Every structure is written in C-alpha cells, then in structure tokens.
Fold this protein.
Amino acid sequence: MKSNQGAGGPPRGNPERTFSGLMERPVGKCTRCKAPAAVRLPSHNSMFCPDCFDQFFLTAVIRALKIVPLPREAPVAVAVSGGKDSLAVWDVLHRLGFETRGVHLDLGIPQFSEASIDAAREFAEKRGLPLAVHSLEELFGHPLPRIRSQVRMDICSVCGTVKRSYLNLLARQAGAGVLVTGHNLDDEAARLMGNLIHRRKRYLEKLYPFLAAAHPAQAARAKPLYRVDEAEIRAYTSLNHIRPAQGGCPFSRGATSTYYKTALLWMEGEMPGTKRDLLWGHIRENGPPQGDAFGSCERCGEPTGAPLCGVCRLKDRMENQDLKSAGRP
Ligand code: AMP
Ligand code: ZN
C-alpha cells in the first residue's frame, strides 16, 4: 500500500491508520453501502466505494457553494493549469450544470507548460468544453523563464502577480464575472499557517474562499475545492479517468508553502481532521473580508490597490534591467 506522501515524505505513525486516499486493493467495506471500499478517509473516519466517494466529493463542493456563490445565469471562468485540482473543479462544476469556460495562461516554461496545455486541452476536448489559451509572451512580452533570468525577485510571487492580472483579463474576455481556481484544503490551510506564523493580518482577512470583485473590471475569485484535500482530489481524478499533467512547476522547488504543507501532512497523519479544523475554523470565525475598493492603474487601467498595477511595475523593472545591461561596458 502506498503511504500518504508529501514533499517531505510520509508522515510518521501507522500507515494503515494514517493513509488517506485511493487504495490499491479494497481492505474494507464502504461506510455507507457496505460495498468493497476504494477510498480511505481517516479525517472523516470513513471508507467509501467509488460511487459513494463520488457522492461525498460532489456534496463537499455543493456545501462549499453555500459560501462560494457562483452564478447560474452567466458563464463562470475556470482557471485551468492542467493539474489535478483545476481539472477536478472544472469537471465538478460542469457536472453540476454550470456554464464553464476554461482559461489557461501559458507561462512558457519548457516541458512543464507544454504538458500543462496538453492536459487541459485533452480534458476540454473530451467534454466539448471551451478553453482559451493565451501566453505570457503574447500578453506581457516575455515568457516566465526570461523574466526569471532578468529580474532579481522571488519568481513565485512574480508568477502570482502575472497570473492574478492576466487570468482576470481572460475571465473578462470569456464574459465571466467569477474566476474559479483549483485551490484546495491543503493549499489554503498551508497559506493560513504561514500567515498566522508571520502575523500577516491583511492576508489573514483575505483568506476566504470567495472574494467579491473590488473593481468593475475585476472578476470575483472563487475556490469551490476549499473543503477537499489533495488525496481526495487525486482519488476523484483517478476514479473519473481525468488525466492531469504530471510533475510540479520546476521553478517552485523550495517554495515555503511546501514546508507548511509537509508540517500539516504530518499533523494530519497523527490527528486526522487537523487541516479542516484549522481552515474551516478560521473561515467560520472571520467570515468574508470587508474588501476595500480598488482603483485603476494609472498606466493600463487594470484594477489595483496602488497607483501602478503589479504588471506595470514588473514591466518597469524589466526595462530598467535592459537599460542597465545596455549601459554595461
Ligand atoms: P498554483 O498557484 O500553481 O498552486 O495554482 C493554483 C490554481 O491557480 C490552480 O488550481 C489553477 O486554478 C490556477 N492556475 C495556476 N496556474 C495556472 C495557469 N498557468 N493557467 C490557468 N490557471 C492557473
Ligand atoms: Zn498597469
């Protein structure tokens, strides 16, 4: 049997007790219908057969939709990276009858981006769903590897800035007022842990699965998978024959979120339900953020909380770097 693997390896403790996710062979009966179980969920003290697991997963998203209001009368944009999370959320929303439009930002990272696009396209074609793919090179003028080699900044935060801005633009072009992402329980609990440790109060306030638009040109941001964890999503994609791109982003190695995820995975192994208690407790206690209104970027008009948006500031940095390099003897 596989153990519950994270970036730092399996958690300590008894793997039979702590293992969560799809099982290689049935080792018990479904908690609901007594058929042979396929998925083990220690945090719910349950084991499910494929059908009951499917129901469990859909119900988790339907529950999430109570505080993540998605429109029925207009299309919803789904930010599709080609990974398991965004393909799973796209699949579930499509099954629940939402009109969805996939949007993908091609970052131009050799091999990784090609594999991501292939997985997103394969999924969209199989279901006959629309997918718009645009590249960072076409929208910004440079692919991510070139930005990385030119500016001395944390590449994950640069990537976050360009994704936030251009995925918002693509959602708008798709005629959607809401942009859905595949962020899951592990992502959000790890982010919460990091923000708690570093007392980042402003980020803590914004850690909510639905953020209303703060500007007329901004889509609301929605995370309908905040109630399900990575093992559950992996089981869902596998049982539904969804083929996500394999392997993570080569630029994200050493990202601090990995340490929080590993720590939480260990705690979850010892005390099933820890991630859920941490995140859901925070969401319940804090409720949706008040949300300050955004202004428009002085240069490009895109939504921003500062005089210049993050993308325009990044462009300035790239140009300054060009000038510096040109001035070098
Ligand atoms: P990440 O920040 O890479 O963990 O991704 C979080 C979520 O952002 C994914 O589940 C997707 O919904 C979305 N996303 C990430 N990368 C892309 C991309 N290149 N194009 C479209 N959506 C993306
Ligand atoms: Zn701007």
Q: What stands out?
A: DSSP finds 13 helices and eleven strands in the chain. The two ends are 61 Å apart (CA to CA).
